């Protein structure tokens, strides 16, 4: 069959609601991309190219695995996954029919189609609303439970599915979750708590699943803040491993959110207030009866499941009347446990029905002396023992892959089991066919995972074997290799693609680090793993988690003999940076970064030398050492100009910030405005963040304040709003945090109180959610400053201002401190506390002169004049206002100049000097070409009107 599309158009095959575009490796269902692996797409393409014709197994194997010799089980597993993706049910082929022993035939009508939908042509990816695995369509005997749980979730916010291991709790939970997809604004998210053994990591596991960033040490509170406004369903699977931590986390989430629902699975109830418990029993099986017919047996779900799983990859197993009583007995002996029935059914080909029952009876008799615990747990253990004992060479691989925290692929299995990828692929296919592995599809092909019960069993087998430490070491090495590959691809792939590909490595990284930390001989391995994970933690904004792991690795450097190496350099830089973000600008953080710089210089590592200089310069500027910071940034520029000119915009933006604080406003504008005309994106536009924050966002944020100060208030607002709009979709939290903090000041200075209040609220929420403590007092300060303006009698605005000042000092965030103190002084004066006001403004002036913080000096002098005028020291107030005007003119701070001119005009008008007031104010007002709706220009216009034309 050929396509009738025009030259150059990709072939497209349509069948049912699907469209297949082979050249784009794309399958669409109603224009929505279907998650399907490369092997599945190859099989599907081979079939739809020849609709109605038999395609033999040999043909498919040669096409899909052209350079590899694989077993037929590989084809069966991939075919089963493909059918699930197409929504087919066993025994009822809608698209693909099995020709037993020969091959497969595509039986649905296929047609060529024209151009794809515009969104697909443009490559627009759908918004992810869930992370559920590929749906399993064949569920038996659980329809009533699934519907009941759906009803309970509509009435209650917490439902727990409780039952023995292997009974089918996860299957039921996923079926309920599938029904909820699309019904909740923020989606449905599966969290497998069976991957964790430490209850403290429960909030981190949930945050990773929903894509939230946890940066503070109080991860649970931060998680709750991120969930506050979301409407979603959390499916917390396998809670029994961390039951106490899960219960605390769930209780806090339910108490502090209103639209989050939770569906939990556990072997025991959570005992949380409001919990509704749904206990699952085994699947019902027929009672003993020698005359039981196949038709009667198939009315019971346990037998239905057995027959379904005995149908090997859609090749039918037919239950006859003679075998029906035996199959029913097998299901009874297995207590209706779904997992045990699946294990047994996959061995029907090897033993036959009668032989299978004999095998189970023999195994149960052998184990009778060691049985402990609930009956169904013993039954599952017996079945697992039996299934495991029937394995040959695959047993070693099954033990090895149990070290993976979640999904893994053929390459991972080959690495941890120390076999070739071809051998691993064959073994995985056989294990999946025996139901010992679950399969799923991702963009690159089939992935595998162990059900938690099977994984726990295999981990115990691994622990008792002589291979345990070797397998775990290979696992750690494999994780390290994957992270190295992730680092090399980070600059070449889009952020969303990169995140989707590597997010699942987080749990394996945590597991490998936990293992490495248990043995003092693994110091070097833990250090290299930590360094490899730096980019992953940074990308997902897991700043606090990064700080914790880096701190531990730094403690191991001397024992590992790695001091003075590139590993120490990288760890020290990231430790200093993450500490600045989550703890503040303490001197220890600076010393840590300086140590990294020393190593970078010794080892001639230009990239890290630039990173360290950038971080040190930022530290110095934000702690009020503006001149020193500017000199450090000039060093950065010198190194960049000689070795890496692409980094120069980074130094230009931060140097412009230092010039802003120093009051060199025109120099700052001349430095920053040309950068707006350049493309500052790094890495082919995939990422804007190279060092500390998005350079373009920071450029616009800093420039906006320079623009406001130099008399362009409307332009400043447009610039900072543009910075926020750029920062939002990047999901880089520090960049958005920067833009919001600059915006609060601009709206406050402009007198736009509603906009200021809105951005203060956004900043406050963002700071709490992401644990960026350096910005917390900024939100607190401007919120309190607004309250002072409103004069709310029930709100201690002055106390909040003073609290913000104290927090700034506690974290050593001293940039802008003189300005902040001037606002406090003004508030004190308004409340008649003139002595305190005078002392505060004097302190502000002393700090400003000591730090060279000239940008706000005209405003400090203006506030000092207000205090003097309130003390009836009019002549001194006039002198100080004139000094303020002269200073503002000298640094081109036109907006501060207007504000001081307004105060001086009022002072002179009260002294019957209207002509002098008008002559002084009018030319300053005339210099403005915009911003006439802002507070100071409105005041100036009203003053000029009241002063008359003269």
Write a structural description.
Helices cover 61% and strands 7% of the residues. Residues 1-8, 117-126, 366-374 and 682-688 have low confidence and may be disordered. Strand 14 (438-442) and strand 15 form a beta hairpin. It is an alpha/beta fold and 950 residues long. It has a 5-stranded antiparallel sheet, covered by helices on one side. The protein has a 5-stranded parallel sheet with strand order 10-11-12-9-13, sandwiched between helices. The protein has a 3-stranded antiparallel sheet with strand order 5-7-6. Among the domains are: 13-121, Winged helix-like DNA-binding domain superfamily/Winged helix DNA-binding domain (Arc Repressor Mutant, subunit A, Orthogonal Bundle); 143-279, 3-Layer(aba) Sandwich (Rossmann fold); 294-371; 394-465, Arc Repressor Mutant, subunit A, CATH 1.10.10.10; 816-950, Tetratricopeptide repeat domain (Serine Threonine Protein Phosphatase 5, Tetratricopeptide repeat, Alpha Horseshoe). The chain starts with 12 loop residues before the first strand and ends with a helix. The protein is built from 43 helices and 15 strands. Helix 30 packs antiparallel against helix 31 (695-709), helix 32 packs antiparallel against helix 33 and helix 33 (733-750) runs parallel beside helix 35. The radius of gyration is 34 Å and the shape is elongated.
């Amino acid at each position: 069959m050929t396509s009738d599309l025009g030259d150059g158009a990709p072939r497209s095959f349509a069948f049912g609601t699907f469209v297949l575009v082979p050249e784009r490796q794309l399958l669409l269902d109603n224009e929505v991309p279907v998650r399907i692996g490369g092997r599945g797409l190859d099989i599907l393409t081979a079939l739809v190219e020849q609709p109605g014709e038999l395609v033999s197994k040999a043909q498919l194997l040669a096409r899909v695995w052209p350079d590899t010799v694989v077993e037929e089980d590989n084809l069966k597993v991939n075919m089963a996954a493909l059918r699930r993706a197409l929504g087919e049910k066993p025994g009822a082929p809608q698209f693909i029919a099995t020709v037993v022993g020969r091959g497969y035939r595509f039986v649905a009508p296929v047609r060529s189609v024209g151009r794809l939908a515009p969104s697909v042509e443009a490559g627009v990816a759908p918004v992810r609303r869930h992370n559920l695995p590929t749906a399993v369509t064949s569920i038996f005997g659980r329809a009533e439970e699934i519907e009941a749980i759906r009803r309970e979730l509509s009435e209650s916010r917490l439902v727990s599915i409780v039952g023995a291991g292997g009974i089918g709790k996860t299957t039921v939970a996923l079926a309920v979750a599938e029904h909820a997809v699309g019904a909740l604004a923020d989606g449905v998210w599966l969290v497998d708590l069976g991957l964790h053994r430490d209850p403290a990591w429960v909030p981190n596991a949930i945050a990773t699943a929903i894509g939230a960033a946890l940066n503070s040490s109080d991860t649970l509170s931060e998680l709750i803040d991120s969930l506050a406004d979301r409407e979603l369903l959390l499916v917390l699977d396998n809670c029994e491993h961390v039951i106490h931590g899960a219960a605390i986390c769930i209780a806090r989430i339910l108490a502090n959110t209103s639209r989050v629902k939770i569906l939990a699975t556990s072997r025991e109830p959570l005992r949380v207030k409001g919990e509704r418990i749904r206990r699952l029993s085994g699947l019902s099986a027929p009672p003993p009866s020698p005359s039981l017919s196949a038709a009667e047996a198939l009315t019971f779900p346990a037998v239905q499941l057995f027959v379904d799983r005995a149908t090997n990859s859609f090749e039918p197993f037919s239950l006859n009347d003679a075998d029906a009583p035996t199959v029913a007995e097998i299901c009874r002996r297995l207590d209706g446990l779904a997992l045990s029935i699946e294990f047994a059914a996959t061995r029907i080909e090897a033993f036959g029905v009668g032989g299978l029952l004999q095998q189970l009876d023999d195994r149960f008799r052998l184990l009778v002396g060691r049985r402990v615990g609930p009956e169904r747990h013993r039954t599952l253990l017996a079945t697992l023992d039996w299934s495991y004992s029937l394995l040959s060479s695959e047993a070693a691989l099954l033990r090895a892959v149990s070290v993976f925290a979640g999904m893994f692929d053929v390459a991972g299995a080959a690495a941890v089991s120390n076999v070739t990828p071809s051998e691993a692929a064959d073994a995985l296919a056989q294990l999946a066919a025996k139901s010992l592995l679950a399969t799923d599809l991702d963009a690159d092909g089939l992935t595998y995972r162990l059900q938690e019960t099977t994984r726990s069993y295999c981990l115990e087998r691994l622990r008792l074997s002589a291979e345990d430490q070797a397998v775990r070491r290979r696992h750690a090495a494999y994780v390290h290799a994957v992270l190295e590959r992730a680092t090399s691809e980070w600059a070449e792939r889009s952020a969303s693609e990169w995140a989707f590909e590597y997010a699942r490595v987080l749990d394996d990284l945590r597991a490998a680090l936990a293992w490495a930390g248990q043995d003092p001989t693994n110091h070097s391995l833990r250090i290299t793993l930590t360094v490899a994970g730096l980019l992953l933690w940074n990308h997902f904004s897991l700043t606090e988690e990064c700080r914790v792991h880096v701190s531990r690795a730094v403690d191991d450097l001397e024992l590992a003999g790695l001091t003075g190496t590139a590993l120490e350099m990288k760890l020290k830089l990231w430790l200093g940076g993450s500490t600045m973000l989550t703890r503040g600008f303490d001197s220890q953080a600076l010393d840590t970064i300086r140590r990294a710089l020393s190593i970078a210089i010794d080892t001639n590592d230009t990239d890290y030398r630039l990173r360290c200089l950038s971080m040190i310069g930022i530290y110095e500027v934000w702690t009020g050492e503006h001149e020193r910071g500017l000199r450090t940034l000039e060093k950065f520029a010198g190194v960049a100009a000689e070795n890496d000119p692409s980094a120069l915009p980074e130094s230009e933006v931060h140097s412009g910030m230092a010039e802003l604080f120093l009051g060199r406003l025109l120099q700052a504008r001349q430095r920053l405005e040309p950068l707006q005309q350049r493309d500052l994106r790094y890495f082919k536009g995939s990422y804007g963040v190279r060092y500390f924050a998005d350079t373009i966002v920071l450029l616009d944020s800093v420039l906006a304040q320079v623009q406001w100060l130099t008399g362009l208030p409307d332009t400043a607002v447009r610039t900072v709003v543009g910075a926020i709009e750029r920062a939002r979709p990047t999901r880089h939290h520090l960049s958005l945090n920067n833009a919001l903090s600059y915006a609060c000041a601009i709206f406050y200075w402009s007198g736009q109180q509603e906009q200021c209040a809105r951005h203060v609220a956004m900043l406050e929420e963002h700071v709490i959610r992401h644990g960026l403590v350096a910005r917390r007092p900024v939100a607190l300060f401007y919120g309190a400053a607004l309250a002072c303006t409103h004069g709310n009698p029930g709100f201690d605005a002055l106390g909040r201002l003073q609290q913000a000042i104290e927090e700034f000092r506690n974290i050593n965030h001293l940039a802008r401190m003189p300005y902040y103190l001037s606002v406090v002084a003004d508030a004190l004066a308004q409340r008649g506390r003139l002595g305190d006001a005078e002392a505060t403004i004097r302190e502000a002036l002393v700090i400003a002169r000591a730090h060279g913080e000239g940008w706000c000096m005209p405003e400090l002098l203006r506030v000092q004049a207000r205090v003097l005028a309130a003390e009836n020291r009019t002549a001194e107030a006039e002198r100080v206002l004139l000094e303020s005007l002269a200073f503002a003119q000298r640094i081109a701070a036109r907006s501060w100049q207007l504000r001081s001119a307004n105060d001086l005009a009022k002072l002179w008008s009260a002294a019957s000097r209207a002509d002098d007031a008008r002559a002084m104010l009018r030319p300053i007002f005339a210099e403005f070409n915009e911003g006439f709706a802002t507070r100071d220009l409105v005041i100036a216009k009203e003053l000029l009107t009241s002063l008359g034309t003269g």
